[in-house]
Write a structure and sequence with these properties.
This protein has one domain (14-341): Aldolase class I (TIM Barrel, Alpha-Beta Barrel), CATH 3.20.20. Helices cover 29% and strands 16% of the residues. It is built from eleven helices and twelve strands. Helix 2 (82-90) links the parallel strand 2 (68-72) and strand 3. It is globular, with a radius of gyration of 19 Å.
């Protein structure tokens, strides 16, 4: 396995693979119904990477230094026979960690156990409020918070640990859920992670005014709990880690808006149609599917992927802080939607 680094000496260690652009939720900050309604045309099946192509890219990426895969979407559990793909990915030399990010709606006890058996190590679920009416309004399909909590229990029972919960906080939407969420998952072993509302894509009407910063989240938590900052468990972590002083567990805060972490980013993202993005806030991806389907061999695909990473200069979140902290107009600058390349 070689060490591949970009222009800022950041190694390639993580590959996030979007399995589909489809999702059964219409979360207002990701796939708002007014833009992703009944008339929206999703990608046809023939355009999606098939399992052979996904496995092939993952094998090549592993030879270039990738050790961790995260399966995302859209909603990845909409992809049929996902456990079959997972088993193939888990058999790749040098892949040591396979994670899944899901909204939890399809994570039954049986499905969770199948995924664990196939090779998924960990799972992250999305839950933006404990209050049912609030959560139904955010996901905009009437799915209840209690059902996601059942999915969390299913993941825990299957041994997909540590189970993590992502909670995107927006001012005026669910900021009052910070303390209830914390109270619900203390002493459970589940790691709750609060995420600053990010300006991904162009469809969510992002404004800086709507961001509840990491500092505000910490201050809110400290009105009830004593928490202490903990060191990162490994290089390139996205979340700032905090521990409850009373031993009740861990909380993470992802602060890409107010405290950019571009300097430690080791992640590339593969879209469902095989475009490689080197930043969550990217505008253009580089096509890997086309060369594969045109007969390129593994060495040629590896050279293409390596060249893309070596040329990488991305540091969007840092630049946002330097140049555009005052943005309020929701201008997405043509960036790719999060539902297209995963979070």
């Amino acid at each position: 396995m070689s060490t591949l680094t970009d222009t800022r000496n950041r190694p390639l260690r993580d590959l996030r693979i979007s399995l589909t652009d489809r999702c059964n939720f219409r979360c207002t900050y990701c796939m708002p119904r007014e833009l992703f309604g009944a008339e929206h045309l999703f990608l046809p099946k023939r355009e999606l990477l098939d399992f052979d192509e996904i496995e092939r890219i993952a094998r090549i990426a592993a030879r270039l230094g990738v050790t961790k895969l995260r399966l995302t979407g859209g909603e990845p559990l909409l992809r049929r026979d996902l456990d079959v793909l997972v088993a193939r990915l888990a058999a790749i030399d040098d892949i040591h960690d396979i994670c899944l990010t899901t909204n939890g709606s399809l994570l039954t006890a049986k499905r969770a156990l199948q995924l664990k058996t196939a090779g998924v190590n960990r799972v992250t679920l999305s839950l933006d409020a404990l209050d049912d009416e609030r959560f139904k309004a955010i996901n905009d399909v009437g799915f209840s918070a209690s059902k996601v909590r059942e999915a969390v229990d299913n993941a825990v029972a299957a041994g997909l640990a540590p189970v993590k919960i992502n909670c995107v906080i927006q001012r005026g939407v669910n900021a009052d859920q910070i303390l209830p969420m914390a109270a619900a998952f203390r002493h459970t072993g589940v790691v709750l992670r609060f995420i600053e509302y990010m300006d991904v894509g162009a469809s969510n009407g992002w404004r800086m005014d709507d961001v509840v910063t990491a500092r505000e989240i910490v201050d809110t938590l400290r009105t009830r709990y004593a928490i202490t900052r903990a060191p990162a468990a490994q290089p390139g972590e996205t979340a700032n880690r905090w521990h409850y002083d009373d031993g009740a567990g861990e909380i993470g805060i992802i602060a890409s808006v107010s405290q950019p972490f571009c300097g430690g980013c080791t992640r590339a993202r593969l879209s469902a149609i095989g475009e490689l993005y080197t930043c969550l806030f990217g505008v253009h991806g580089r096509d890997l599917r086309g060369p594969m389907r045109s007969g390129a061999n593994d060495a040629e695909i590896a050279a293409l992927l390596a060249g893309i990473w070596r040329a990488r200069e991305d540091r969007y979140s840092e630049q946002r802080g330097e140049q555009t902290a005052g943005r309020r107009d929701g201008d997405g600058d043509g960036r790719v939607e999060m539902s297209y390349i995963g979070g």
